[in-house]
Design goal:
The structure is a homodimer.
Chain A lengths: L1 H9 L17 H8 L7 H9 L7 H4 L15 H6 L1 H10 L6 H31 L6 H36 L19 E6 L12 H7 L3 E2 H7 L6 E3 L1 H18 L4 E4 L3 E3 H6 L19 E3 L4 H7 L3 E4 L5 E10 L18 E11 L4 H18 L4 E5 L11 E9 L4 E10 L3 H6 L1 E4 L19 E2 L1 E9 H11 L7 E2 L13 E2 L5
Parallel strand pairs in A: 4-8, 7-13
Antiparallel strand pairs in A: 1-10, 2-3, 5-6, 8-9, 9-15, 10-11, 11-12, 12-15, 13-14, 16-17
Helix pairs in contact in A: 7-8, 9-16, 11-16
Organism (chain A): Brassica napus (Rape)
Keywords (chain A): Aminoacyl-tRNA synthetase, ATP-binding, Coiled coil, Ligase, Nucleotide-binding, Protein biosynthesis
EC number (chain A): 6.1.1.11
């Protein structure tokens, strides 16, 4: 508890209470449901799902009593939400979100009312000031001075209230999830629709090993030493596994660069506000995010976060869009609450290498880029000879930022089932409204202004999309398990061989 | 201060400040001196990344903050320090401490050790007395005599409990104080400060430029290779994104380095980058304190590695290796994270000193008699790599005051950096002899059965020995990039890729300015 208190004390983002406001502690029940999904399933999904901003962490209401301000503002379109109340309500329900729309609307109406009140008083004050410019009876002047003073006092109080109200509105409204693509199936994970299926499960004529056994027999991984040195779910890669990781990343980068993506390496330590702006929850008991002691920084769980941040608070030229990145980084996840059989071996680990695609584009292009991203993923996994299916994930399985999400699940013989290997999300303007990434359309608007000159067209928020190109450990699970031979060796898929110095087979070592 | 208190509270390893008749003052008399020394160490005159890490973060003193915690927590682990050897070689150790500019308190260590030995004897004496009493009580006795013996046994037991507690505390304190004693030093190492370091070798000559040169930061901007500005918004200063060909260059450097070093029989590894803080300590780095170079994870006893030396050192922790398995030679790739607390100055510009970078690190575990040869092999590999890349560099045998606590001897390589207009450190190769293995508990059992002199007449297993460990940078990517970009720049603003790297970059020969 000591730790916790301290963490709050160093972090300005806290909840405020005031007479105007709603009950500041929403929904105990939802919290635990969201952080422990019924199927404790997939790494990438778990990350986007459970850590997405879907609720206000309970802890924020409890201990800190100082009314600190929010660190940053999401440009949420409250007017649109109010005007589309029914659609938003249905969306929240479909997505199994615990966002409190009523509270948001009420706070928003309160804020609008208060804003009007503040404006009214400002006007009155101006009137008083205007009156005082003329010649006046001393008694009248004194009355006006008194009135002005009173008005000023009210104004100070009301402006303070307004600021608090705005902060609270921000806080509560952030839990509202993105809207959903009309074609997304409504329901839980079982409702997800299969978009595509490639290949068929390999038939083995011999008893198979899982990747953990193969890794041990071929001297490719060391989980035992890592458990001593670091903790459980850490690992060393050894020998050909190191080369395989590099080959996977090199090959992926070179393939994706052919599609016009700019390669990047990224910082792996970022300010926690960036994590929040991307729609993840960096704090709380069940956070997936490692925090750095004594700072407001944390470790990234995916390169989506630092790449999302590159163009933060900027206005891009329309001609510069789309910006397409392929970013390599290490990723760090606490995997709090993860348990079960799928937690074995490389399937769910605290640290791994990943190449992630990220696109910033005009709103009208995001759907076609979403299709491009899933196509790239499918092409990559097909080249590696995997058996997989692509899913259009159902509403309840979307993280808050995603408008639509396509997952790819590949056949993992050791698990005896499909396991998630990638995820491609269209986040439309959910992240860009938080990160402040806009563009200015090139075409001047048809001018309707009285001044008769062409105005600069107003800025719009870009759409952002992210998609896994290669999450190394899960790819290794697939490759080792699917390409194992009866003699215990593993064949390296042809596409990767040029990136591994021509190695064709990983053979048991002579000791 | 709140943070600090908390950190101490969650971390069991603290200085035991209990006082007892036998012990030294818990705040060593040289604390103030220590403070002065500390700040000198964290702000080396020539701030070199790799060296700064090993020098300033190495366990050279007990952080003064630890003295403030009043609970007497136990150290988490024990270093197998050879106190008898230290006592028997007091003069040599004293001179070594002085030469290395260490603030280790040898007098304190020896006094604590003598106290401990005396106390041990006392405890043994009382145990014997108690046994005697117990023996006497087995026979038939007068009731009064029995009662006297019962009483005597009881009071002996009480003394024993007290003394044993004292002994444990004393041992803990001895551990804590003795850990600051640096490794001994190779007799050929020049004595003195950094200026005394000896040049072992010099390769190439500085390139003559016929045009005004740019530094790597400018080249990185002009060629759209590096983005520090966005990184400072997203992460903080001294973080960066690599873009475009720089990403490929990083991968090429690492791929090429790995493939070259693997040819020499090194096993490739990737490592965890989050480790328990005890492993950091055992490798001779200081994971806590105001000026630590180490990032800690909130709410755990884990931290981020500053070098792959740490997780590789930990692989064989607490184990006994077969002599036939030695030497174990690893080439490990990892990202490295450093707070760079206290770093400042011109050399902190651009990629020279950053919070996060990629590195391939060599690590060897070998028999004591082989470590000097292995050290020569490591520096040879480094020199071969940098020669292949066409760098102008010199190899230094680092002087005593410039060695981190774990190093018995350290060879640094400094390469010519035209943008800085001077040599800058690009690698470091240290022989740590048994300093780390005594902390990590890595031994081996010699294969040859020992000539038996035992009375039982059968061949006994030979006693285990501590391995020697060595570590050496194969490729610290950002500093290599500084060298490559600055040395291979052309008048038209492009940068030539050295030939060995081209096959690892899809055949790219030149990084050209982008068309926009």
């Amino acid at each position: 508890m000591g730790l916790h208190t301290l963490r709050l004390a160093t972090v300005p983002l806290t909840f405020t209470t005031s007479r105007l406001f709603l009950n500041p502690s929403p929904t105990l029940a939802f919290f635990s449901r969201h952080v422990q999904p019924r199927k404790p399933s997939f790494l990438l999904r778990a990350f986007s799902n459970s850590t997405a901003v879907q609720d206000t962490p309970l802890t924020q209401t409890s201990s800190d009593s100082s009314a600190a301000r929010t660190q940053w503002k999401a440009a949420i379109d409250f007017k649109w939400i109010r005007d589309n109340k029914e659609a938003v309500e249905i969306n929240i329900k479909n997505r199994n979100s615990n966002a409190d729309l009523e509270a948001v609307l009420q706070l928003y109406e309160n804020m609008v009312t208060l804003q009007k009140e503040v404006e009214g008083i400002r006007e009155e004050r101006n009137n008083v000031a205007k009156k005082m410019k003329g010649k006046l009876e001393p008694s009248e002047r004194e009355r006006l001075v008194e009135e002005g003073k009173n008005l000023k006092e009210s104004l100070v109080t009301l402006e303070e209230d307004l600021m608090k109200l705005q902060d609270e509105l921000q806080h509560v409204a952030r839990s509202i999830p993105n809207m959903t693509h009309p074609d997304v199936p409504v329901g839980g994970e079982d409702s997800s629709a299969i978009r595509n299926e490639v290949g068929s499960p390999r038939e083995f004529s011999f008893p198979i090993k899982d990747h953990l056994q193969l890794g041990k027999d071929l001297d490719l991984m060391d989980f035992d030493s890592a458990a001593e040195v670091s903790g459980s779910k850490f690992f060393y890669l050894k020998n050909e596994a190191v080369l395989l990781e590099m080959a996977l990343l090199n090959w992926t980068l070179s393939e994706v660069m052919k599609k016009g993506f700019t390669p990047l390496t990224t910082p792996e330590i970022v300010r926690s506000s960036i994590v929040e702006k991307c729609g993840f929850q960096p704090r709380g008991d069940n956070t997936q995010v490692y925090s750095i002691d004594g700072t407001d920084q944390c470790l990234i769980g995916t390169a989506e976060i630092p790449v999302g941040g590159i163009h933060m608070d900027s206005i891009l030229l329309e001609s510069a869009l789309p910006l397409k990145y392929i970013a390599f980084s290490h990723c760090f996840r606490t995997e709090a609450g993860a348990a079960g059989a799928a937690a074995k071996g490389l399937y769910r680990v605290h640290q791994f290498s990943k190449a992630e695609m990220f696109v910033l584009c005009r709103p009208e292009d995001s759907e076609s880029f979403h299709n491009e991203l899933i196509q790239i993923e499918e092409d990559l996994f097909t080249s590696l000879g995997l058996h997989f299916k692509t899913l259009d994930m159902a509403t309840a399985d979307l993280g808050a930022p995603a408008y639509r999400k396509f997952d790819i699940e590949a056949w993992m013989p050791g698990l005896g089932r499909f396991g998630e290997i990638s995820s491609a999300s269209n986040c439309t303007d959910y992240q860009s409204r938080r990160l402040g990434i806009r563009f200015r359309p090139s075409e001047p608007l048809q001018t309707g202004s009285k001044k008769g000159k062409a105005n600069l067209p107003s800025t719009k928020f870009v759409h952002t999309l992210n998609a896994t190109a290669c999450a190394v450990p899960r790819m290794m699970v697939c490759l080792l398990e699917n390409y194992q031979q009866e003699d215990g060796s593993v064949v390296v898929p042809e596409t990767l061989r040029p990136f591994m110095g021509g190695i064709e087979v990983i053979k048991p070592k002579l000791r």
